[in-house]
Specification:
14% helix; 4 helices; 14 strands; four-stranded mixed sheet
Length: 237
């Protein structure tokens, strides 16, 4: 979630991967048997083939490029030296991660054939859409409805923050719909840094609904006086 991306978290994951065979300890052979040099490639792991004027070199199909074969393979791993198994890992996700951030866990990938070294595990992060905030790099944008009276006369509104609190925003008199207010340091965390982005509040002036007869009469009276006071310069122009 966006909140977890802001704070960072530790996640436990379970995955099925290739681990060292516990029966042959990765050798690929039964106890007491030793790997022998591959007769097809003479232990080189690669074979050459003539194709017209060219000589093509590729991995040996008999030993899969290892240069050695197992005449008495392990019955548990069929001579590969590895087996599929589930394992659990604890992943530390730093604060400020973005969509597509890649985390590399060295040595946590699949083990190689017949005792080969393990590879790495790469984790790609995806951030869920947030119902209120829109993210733009380290900045956050949000839309907040403001009552017409507050926008006209001025006042204060409260805006939620990504850390779960609230912050007061001063609305000057005559604020129009679409105006934005910048709150410094209230945006997302910047990864591997103590800095934070900014938060932008976009004002949406809210038109009142379900008015009483008295309220409608007052607005009509206001509308009559408004025409003579030129208080809506944009629409008049």
């Amino acid at each position: 979630s966006l909140e977890e991306a802001f704070k960072g978290k530790t996640e436990n994951i379970t995955l099925t991967t290739a681990v060292t065979c516990d029966s042959c300890s990765g050798s690929g052979g039964e106890k007491g048997s030793q790997p022998e040099s591959c007769p097809t490639c003479q232990g080189r792991g690669r074979i050459r083939a003539q194709q017209g004027f060219f000589t093509v070199e590729r991995s040996c199909h008999a030993c899969q490029g290892l240069g050695k074969i197992i005449k008495n393979p392990c019955t548990k791993c069929a001579g590969s030296g590895r087996m599929r198994k589930q394992k659990s890992l604890k992943v530390n996700i730093p604060a400020g991660v973005e969509e597509g951030t890649r985390i590399r866990l060295s040595g946590e990938g699949e083990v190689g054939m017949r005792g080969g070294p393990p590879g790495d595990l790469y984790i790609f992060l995806s951030i869920k859409p947030h119902p209120f905030f829109q993210r733009e790099d380290a900045d956050l944008h949000c839309r907040i409805p403001v009552p017409m009276i507050t926008a006209t006369l001025g006042g204060e509104i409260e805006a939620p923050t990504i850390e779960g609190g609230r912050v007061k925003v001063s609305i000057p008199a005559g604020t129009q719909s679409g105006r934005q207010f910048r709150l410094r340091g209230k945006g997302m965390s910047v990864m591997r840094s103590g800095q934070r982005g900014d938060m932008y509040v976009h004002v949406a002036v809210e038109t009142p609904v379900n008015l009483s007869k008295k309220q409608k009469d007052l607005l009509k009276q206001f509308g009559t006086e408004e025409k003579s006071s030129h208080s809506s310069p944009e629409s008049e122009s």
